[in-house]
Every structure is written in C-alpha cells, then in structure tokens.
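Aim 2 progress update. The chain analyzed this quarter is reproduced below.
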Amino acid sequence: MKDTEFFTLSAYETSAEAFFTALKDHHTDLVLDIRLHNSNQLCGFTKERDLAYLVPALTGAAYVHDVRLAPSPDLLKGYQDHVTDWDGYRAGYEKEMQAGNVKSYVESRYGQYRHVCLLGTATKKRRSHSEALLDLLQGQNTKDET
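Predicted structure tokens:
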C-alpha cells in the first residue's frame, strides 16, 4: 500500500469542527473506523450511524466500520481495566493483526483509497490501537494526528 497515506484520528476528546477539518485537511477519501464499540452514547457525534451520514455529507469520503481491525474484546478490556499496560496491549494487538494477515487484508479491501483515516480511541490518558495499526501498515511513512 505504498501509494496510500494513512493517518490516525481519535473519536474522543475532539470537537466536530476539529474532527471534520482534519479529514478535509488530509484529503481523506476513507474513514476506516477500527473501534470495537462505536454505538454507545459516549461516542457523541462519532457514533457509527452518525458518521455513516456525516462523513460522506461533509467531506465526500467513504465511511467503513471494520471490526476485523479492532482489538479482541478480552485484549481491550485488559487494557481499559489497567490489567495490561500499553506495551502489552500493543504487542497483543500486533499479534492479532499479524495472525489475520492485516497488510494483505487491508490492501485487498481498501487498496483503492489514497488518504485513509484510521479512526481510533486515543485520549490524553490512553493510547489507541490505531497507532499500532498505523505502524504495521506503513511504518515510517506515516502521520499521526492523535
């Protein structure tokens, strides 16, 4: 996926204005929502149903929720409950993605897109698996907006 630029964006601790401006500034043609849970009230304007409408309407980009790129429920719970630290969470997530042959999967499903936003869950206190996926997909040729 050498012709595709990936960047991360968090669904949390951001305003709608900053969120959609970032998508436009990156010329995003796909918002790839890799959150395991994206439909509860804590998601605010970034609920799946809302983004499925707002992303194409405001930016012209496609929106896809792909749980295959999300961490397993047990791995995520361990991180959220502070049982697993960031390094352990990241290593576990990378192992899950490598077992699923993530690069080939993303290439076959999303290779036609050139500017892809990996929508994750970073906050000021917590990092997101989107950061690890970004590194898995492109390593050093990446940008980080979280």
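The CA atoms of residues 6 and 13 lie 21 Å apart. The radius of gyration is 14 Å. These observations will guide the mutagenesis experiments scheduled for the next reporting period.
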